[in-house]
Amino acid sequence: MATERSGGGGGLKNYLLLIMFVSGLLSLLPFFLVEKISKSSPAYDASSLGEQNIDNNNDLVTIANTRRRASTKALQPGTAIRDNISSPFCQRWSSADAANRTLQPFDEWYTHHPNWVITNETEDMFCIEPYCEKGSSSYPCPNDRRSNLISDFWRFYNNQFRSPCDKVHYRSMWSSGWSADFLNVQEGLLDATNNFHMPLVMSSPWHYAAIKKDSSIRTCSQADLTCYFLPYHSCGSLDKICGFTPRDFGLAIADCNGTSVERITTEQILDAVEIWNERGYAAYQFMTRKQLWLHRAVFDFKRNFRVKHGPESDCSVVHVRRADIIMHTMHARKYYPISDYVNLIPKEKLNDPNHTIFLLTDDANAVKEAHEFHPTLRWKYIDRPRHSGSSGGWENQTPSLNPALELIVIMATFELVQDCSSLVHGFSGFSDYIWTHMAANAGNRSVKRLRVDDQKQVFNNNHSQSEEELAKLLDERRAKNTLNYTH
After folding, report:
1. The pLDDT of residue 52 is above 60
2. Each residue of 365-385: pLDDT tens digit?
3. Given this model, what pLDDT does residue 266 score?
4. Of 66, 275, 339, 343, which residue is 20 to 30 A from 265 by alpha carbon distance?
5. Please, which residues have CB within 8 angstroms of residue 384's CB and are 6 or more apart in sequence?
6. Cα–Cα distance, 169 to 233 (Å, whole number)
7. So what's the pLDDT on residue 487?
């Protein structure tokens, strides 16, 4: 009996050990599955982690702006994402991602999910969720500007990715200035979607992706919008569409004729395509959806800028456009002194010791002028290469000789200005983009816009002499200040 009990106890013991062993294997199964999926499987379903309890607190992230306390494990960089994912998730990233200027698995997924919006960014990760879908913070869907924007995104996406590619609406990239370039892009996308019902394809190179004078220092080999932004059509490379990849500025549309793809062009000018119109804004937002590397580069740029300049209670944006505006002959614009901009800022702001003026300018002389003639004001500006006055010549948008840096600065600027409550500027298409980014993200805040050339003649051939006139005016003020100081 004792032997039987001993034998029976040994069998039970072995049975229990077997259960514990199997249980241990099962507990490790999720780890092996995740490792296997992330290393060899073409896709990873982050939604399956949405309701799990994860012990490692370092892997827990509370999705920003969600109505439920959903904790989700963040995906590692390079992890592919399944197309049918439906729950909010987070993506790990680091500053190293800004140096990898290639399409990442997240970019490939994000390209085809235009209804997903980024809800939070931290040093270690960013989070994203489907807008107006069950489980997201925006559900049930409000009838707001974002909802309309997402609807437009789907219209653009369906036209660009689900239309046949035997015909494309082909446009030259102007490479003139930011506002002119994107006015053309916005018009092209709206024309392609609403009138032609075929994909838009923009030519290359673009002067924010290669130096204009010699097509050098290319951000990527094709030197076009897709160096920075998500793919916007499924018709393949320009080599496939044109028969070659254009490498020089100034090529005519007629030069793109080497394949069976029919390229439809137009001279028609559409209405309501500007950035301040809803449909122009939607087209711009769709065409400038950032790739992961650019997203991170802009994040780092903003963080470093804010660390350098510290927190503030309020700020005003002053945009001083100079450079080549005096070279437009009959459409020449005037160089206004910094004091003309400052005088438009409300006195209560100027008298606030915590108020800061965010100076945006293409003229290095304007930065010196601001400090020299208004030394008691709190100035902040982006430390980057600039031309001095008109020294850069006509439409030279890359004083740093680094197109990628110039674009990162522009994209970061559009986000940094959203901290401010007023904008003072002269006639400038770029100011329209600054203003639109401020106004579209102001929420319930009031944002004022003031023109230094209001009620004045904006275009005049006489303004071509205004650089010399400004220098003379400042010299007179220096002499007067010196005289007052000596007496």
Report:
1. no
2. 999 999 999 999 999 999 999
3. 76
4. 275
5. 400, 405, 409
6. 11
7. 56
pTM for this model (two decimals): 0.82
Q: How far is CA 285 from CA 276, 368, 389, 403, 433, in A?
A: 12, 35, 32, 21, 11
Predicted confidence (pLDDT) at residue 332 exceeds the cutoff of 60: yes
Query: Quick one: tokens of 358?
Result: 């965010």
How many residues does the structure list for the chain? 487
What is the bridge-based pairing of β-strands 125-130 and 71-73? unpaired
- Over residues 167-182, mean pLDDT: 93
441 pLDDT tier (thresholds 50, 70, 90): confident
What order of strands is seen across the sheet that includes strand 125-130? 89-92, 125-130, 116-121
Alpha-carbon distance values, 216 to 153, 181, 219, 271 (Å):
33, 19, 9, 36
Question: Does the pLDDT at position 479 exceed 50?
Answer: yes
Question: How far is Cα 346 from Cα 349, in angstroms, rounded to an integer?
Answer: 5
CA distance 36 to 33: 5
